Amino acid sequence: MQCRTDLGLCVAFPPSPVTRSGTQKAAFVGSSWPAKMAAPAGKVARGWSVLALTLRTAVPRLPGLTQVRWSRYSPEYRDPQTDKEYYRKPLAELTEEEKCEQELRKTQLIKAAPAAKTSSVFEDPVISKFINMMMKGGNKVLARSLMTQTLEAVKRKQFEKYHAASAEEQATIERNPYTIFHQALKNCEPVIGLVPILRGGHFYQVPVPLPARRRRFLAMKWMLTECREKKHRRTLMPEKLSHELLEAFHNQGPVIKKKHDMHKMAEANRALAHYRWW
Amino acid sequence: MATPSLRGRLPRLGNPRKPILKPNKPLILANRVGERRRDKGEATCITEMSVMMACWKQNEFRDEACRKEIQDFFDCASRAEGARKMRSIQDTGESGNLPPMKLNKLLQRFPNKSHV
């Protein structure tokens, strides 16, 4: 099957030292495999027997070299697809590539999806990323509850405005907290970034185009930094965040100002753009 | 070619002669290789960037007024990124060795044990 060409990258690396025989566990005494590999015997045996079916050649034991870091998943494992729309597409609409992919999925090993990823209709990757960035010390429960309280606060504020407004204004007021969140973060994304480049012993701030994920990250980072540091100590996070999100939605507020400052600096340093080499 | 011998080269108590080598770092294989000398490229998307900045200057840095220029800049940046990726894939596919970044990742997984 040639449809998965991205596996080529994994195959180019020498795979983890797994021997073909699934039975001899004593053979691994000499190597540095961790104890946890021995525990789920059934699963490991299944993994080994499946690996025996792959077309990869056996890796010789490398004397003097021990593997120190690897994941539970060998390169055959594929990422889980939690998107329900992918599976609901009728057979006629699928292209050859997609049919091939779906066939492969039936037989190949798939990694476990992380706990925070669901196939629910309420799942939103931007919100999940924001919750992860808000999280401190692994306290996902607290971060998620803060996020829901923020969205509720945004909704309440917008509803108050809606009920207080006249008929023409009611049409312009946006009440869905998710659209407000997305639009606010989109408004906060910088278009161009600054990178310190060493030239002649001095660091110059050179304007540089940013990839999309860097822009989204910066927007979220600025929003969180603004709320955590520049506000009064006693105000709660949902209150601060909802206020900042609403201001960013209307293109006002300190986060938008920070984005504009970045743009202005880039504009001032536009002559230095030739210091880039990419 | 075999490694040149180290016998009697280092300043040690058991070595009667003058030392030949005086290494300032221990002679142990590191777990990384050096970067290859990359050829200097030049900056891409300068024209789009200057057009966008001229638009900003006229419209007081408002993004809604400069949508088209910003979109052009993003398109140019993604095209340059794609071209760079294609070039790096072609470059690394030709010679027999792995590129230094991938080699370093591999060496991190199979490090040289300099301790007991």
TrEMBL record, chain A:
Establish whether keyword Ribosomal protein is in the entry: yes
Q: InterPro entries of this UniProt entry? A: Ribosomal_uS7 (IPR000235), Ribosomal_uS7_dom (IPR023798), Ribosomal_uS7_dom_sf (IPR036823)
GO aspect biological process, one term = translation
Organism superkingdom? Eukaryota
Similarity comment text for this entry:
Belongs to the universal ribosomal protein uS7 family.
Pfam families noted in UniProt: Ribosomal_S7
Which residue ranges does the record assign to the Small ribosomal subunit protein uS7 domain?
115-270
Its source organism is Mustela putorius furo
Name of the protein in question: Small ribosomal subunit protein uS7m
Arranged from A to Z, the UniProt key words for this protein are:
Mitochondrion, Ribonucleoprotein, Ribosomal protein, Transit peptide
Principal cellular location given in the protein's record:
mitochondrion
The subcellular location is:
Mitochondrion
Any single GO CC term annotated in Swiss-Prot or TrEMBL for this entry: mitochondrial small ribosomal subunit
Query: Looking at the keywords, is Mitochondrion present?
Result: yes
From TrEMBL, chain B:
The region annotated as signal peptide is none
SUPFAM superfamilies under this entry? Cysteine alpha-hairpin motif
- InterPro entries noted in UniProt: CHCH, Cys_alpha_HP_mot_SF, Ribosomal_mS37_met
Q: Does the keyword Disulfide bond apply?
A: yes
Could you state a single Gene Ontology molecular function term?
A: RNA binding
Biological processes annotated in GO: mitochondrial translation
Q: Which GO terms describe its cellular component?
A: mitochondrial ribosome; nucleoplasm
Q: Where is this region: Disordered?
A: 1-23
Biased composition, class Low complexity, residue ranges: 1-18
Q: Which UniProt keywords apply?
A: Disulfide bond
Record-linked Pfam families: CHCH (PF06747)
Domain annotation CHCH: ranges: 45-78
The identity of this protein, by name, is Coiled-coil-helix-coiled-coil-helix domain containing 1
Query: Which source organism does the UniProt entry give?
Result: Mustela putorius furo (European domestic ferret)
